[in-house]
Design goal:
By secondary structure, this protein is an alpha+beta fold. It is built from two helices and two strands, in the order ααββ. It has one domain (3-61). It has a two-stranded antiparallel sheet with strand order 1-2.
């Protein structure tokens, strides 16, 4: 999601969900630092095996207030 779109959503006072992958290093680190003291309200972890590769995906839902 482009930064400009996210900014418009925030300025409008709306809630939103955004997916962040580990390869978005700066954003991923900022989110980790901001939410490290919060427990997820929902957590889903899946593991998938294909050929010689094992992939684990985790999705956490955190409630937070941004001002």
């Amino acid at each position: 999601m482009p930064k400009k779109t996210v900014q418009l959503i925030i300025e409008g006072g709306n809630d939103y969900v955004i997916a962040v992958k580990g390869n978005q290093k700066r954003l991923h680190e900022q989110i980790k630092l901001t939410t490290e003291q919060r427990l997820p309200v929902s957590l889903d972890i899946t593991t998938e095996r294909r050929s010689d590769r094992i992939t684990t995906r985790s999705v956490s839902v955190l409630m937070t207030e941004w001002h």
